[in-house]
């Protein structure tokens, strides 16, 4: 299965969970540390795509600068979306964080945001950017977005060993993260441990089974879908035009960052676009290989962006809760209402 197909499967699983939510049991342990931990390990293993030896020192500076600039643009766009009366600025910011959509959704409620809105906008962002990628490459760059021709037959650990190692990382990461008061320890703790071990060459052969990753993503979205009611669906429907416009603007601004990045590093404009595309990292990987672009540079940029976004999410949440008191009040009221609804449904 190609990386583009895997991205499509992830999106389909999320939408399927949302569509079938009304037939689901009323209590799904989707926000447990186990589910967040699986997503954390899967995200942490992405650093395997980083190739330090293939990049010059100035390239690292440019890549980090673009990642930080993308974060700033996402925060600004989220603040604009938060002006809408149906959501808080915090929810708006989390909705437009361009990196690790399933991870962001999994911690949205914990950070004080409305995970229902965050899930809707995040999946819209991934769908639009992934769908537009072949068109942009063909029309703007004159290339062809071919799929990943064939995956390397890399040696992997036996399934039982991989599952056991993943479980150990999740438990130690979550408990250790809580011990040091790491925000969103269920996700960021295992992710931090995975990144550290991977950089030290201690996770050779480890891979998170795709079915496990997709199941975790499905459960996260399913939980958000269980909280939907007529009022929340109407609210999401009202903000979607604004969210769509901001996603388009975000994509255009980040594409401009790609031009700057390409000029700064001496690579092609296509490399710059793929390196900064704010969504669909698996689709970007497949497209990069298919177009014979600079895989090391593109994937290093993409992975750094995802990691920066996820670790910055708790800091962004604290900033919005501190400087926009209204968001705390809106979220508290929304969470209280949602808890009452869930309690009534479980009776």
Task: Describe the fold and architecture.
With 347 residues, the protein is mainly alpha-helical. It has one domain: Na+/H+ antiporter like fold (Up-down Bundle), CATH 1.20.1530. It has 14 helices and no strands. The chain has helices at 3-19, 33-44, 57-81, 89-95, 101-111, 115-139, 159-179, 185-199, 210-226, 230-265, 269-276, 281-290, 295-323, 325-346. It is globular and about 50 Å long.
- What is the name of the CATH class? Mainly Alpha
The secondary structure category is: mainly alpha
Whole-number tally of structural domains: 1
Give the assembly state of these chains: single chain
Order of helices and strands: HHHHHHHHHHHHHH
How far apart are the first and last residues' alpha carbons, in Å?
A: 43 Å
- Arithmetic mean of pLDDT: 79
Q: Biggest β-sheet: count, sense, barrel?
A: none
- Strand-residue fraction? under 5%
Tally of individual helices: 14
CATH architecture: Up-down Bundle
Determine the CATH topology: Na+/H+ antiporter like fold
Q: What is the tally of beta strands?
A: 0
**Rounded radius of gyration (Å):** 19 Å
- Range of helix content: over 70%
Estimate the global geometry from the Cα principal axes: globular
Low-confidence stretches: 1-9, 26-31, 148-153, 327-333, 341-347
